[in-house]
């Protein structure tokens, strides 16, 4: 099954300042252990998210963010109210989470359940999938939400690309506080570091039966340092598949992202 993996990852990194970094992302390994490297793949994230990437088009940034008039229709507020809600935080346009939570409460009181559900999903997109600034929903997260709601686009490529960019940025800057979907990254990492006591095709059940304990920073460091190619779990049950990505458009093969 041929997929334009490299092209999709490249195009999903929309800001121009990401492009110089993006040139190296598909050629690097995220985690280097004793004698092997390990990195999340699109196939793994497809199963972790639970949305088949070949059943719907990928979300790709179209070159412009949604207008404030469109955001006003989404929130079901007049344009005059939208002028009060919109913010520009360090040149990142968006809305405070507190304002959305207040609007969510109003929709609950009005029993406008369709708009209420949209608002809940939008908050999930910002808090879980595309976090950037704490307690702040930017237009990028709103655009991604509208892509799924209005066009049925999946976010597998975008989430994975954002994860690679964040890891690369933090590594270069020796920074702390990952700004990506850390819950998925944690689930992916524990899948390979811990072995499940039961065979299951559900990633969540697999995590449960792996009995991952709460570890301190020192214990996590030791766990990562002691991982070897024999102790690692290369191929979890939930990721077994018949179709795999083997080439990218005209290229006869693609680089492995875990060896």
From TrEMBL:
Entry-linked Pfam families: DUF7745
Residue ranges occupied by any DUF7745 domain in the UniProt entry: 28-259
Matching InterPro entries: DUF7745 (IPR056647)
Protein name: DUF7745 domain-containing protein
Organism, as annotated: Mucuna pruriens (Velvet bean)
